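Write out the 3D structure for:
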Amino acid sequence: MFTIADKIIKALAENNRVYEKGLAYCREKRVSIDDLGEEDLCISGRVSGSDEYEVEVCFSASGEITDMYCDCPAFSQYEGACKHIVALLKDYQQQQMDRKKLAAAKPGNRGGNSRLADYIFEYYDYSLKKSSKKPVSLEITLEVFHEIRNPDRKVASSLSLRMGEDKLYMVKDIRKLLEAIDNGEEIVFGKQFTFDPAVHTFWSEDKPVIDLLLKIHELEEKINQDSWYSSWQNGRGRLFRGKQVILTSLMAKRFLSLVESERFNAKFFDEEYKNIKIVKQDMPLLLTLDKRKDDLVLQWKKVRLFPLVDTGEYFFHDGIIYKVSERQKECRIKILSILTRLRQVCCHPATFLEDYQGDSGKLLYLREMMKDAVKSGHRILLFSQFTGMLEIIRKHLENEQIAYFYLDGYTKTEERGRMVHDFNRGECDAFLISLKAGGTGLNLTGADMVIHYDPWWNPAVEDQASDRAYRIGQKNSVQVIKLIAKGTIEEKIYDLQQKKKAMIESVIKPGETMLSKMTEQEVRELLGVRS
């Protein structure tokens, strides 16, 4: 093969920054050359960055580069070489230089078995050089806290790091650490420790976490110039905040999957835990459905459980993080499904029974109430969580020839604005609104009556919906009516709301469900299951 000069590699690189990053990757020994392709004059290999990429460079018989390829996203966007191609060429260049030095230091005219011995010596010498880095210890802390910058004080999670050889030092700026790793630069932590990517490496069990952080950093840098992201930053801050890396639920899930067999530290609000681990077993909580009797069986121990990700795989309890089984996740889904069905029965069985031909006591009551209200000159906002129920009410209004507007999650923004404007001008007597789609952001001062057809878990969501009529410009008194089916789960939900209202307002924010917050006894009361 050929000797490649530095000036050729520099000229080939997309820009100087790309060249420097490729050089850093080479120094950090991230390159693994698979094949030198003596016959077809090609070099191929793999380069590890935020991910592992396949790289290939081909030459002409005279030594000129004729083709190059990398499967990284940047390659298709560049006219020149990406950092992975630069790293491959620099690694190959270094190998060629090492071989020349070894050849010059040995007696000439050696052939046969002696030449084979030279190749073996060269291979092991090069391998030893690649594995001579000093390992650095990494201590990881997962912290769960209330997000102060978020007006709703939602729960967030973050990672912080300590690292070193003998003594561990706090990483005060994780972004700078990742940039140093990426660019091959040194960082001074103290008199006894300076981190140098060319000299140090992380233990194999810690590398996946560092690679995850590098990937998060790379993704954030790519979208940093996006106007939407810039506005998001102003509202919530960047992911990298000094010694913290803020994790989204998806990132937290990915982190936990990487450390399932490792120990790490955790801080949950004001409580700290050292060397905790993830246990792959069901929590001390079991929800089952007895298929033989079609009875719901609840077997809950009185424990304090805290969900770490939205998708429900990981829960924290008593110094242990549990990764629950699919069976237990399905049981939680069954509970939610049962509660939803019970609530739909209260609204109208036809919301989930296709062939149901009967009526609904609540709907009959609504018909009479709306008919009298419209005759008396009232203008009505009607909210329901179930769009299927709203469709049934629409048919009733059409039969009664009551003019109405309808809004759900599929209503376009322009149409929403037009309907709100027309309603406030006096058009139509009723406005049917899906609770989640129209519970916030609307100014409907044209109404003087608000009807909640079905109760939602969080009364704050209902209050926000009612506030659509209590806006600046409202000149009339507003009547708020909640329809609760007596002797049903709706009545129990209402009782639970009143009993726990103070807790709900301080802990559960608008838009959240209450199912994961309920105690064992509260769920039993809702479902009528005895202890």
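The mean pLDDT is 77.
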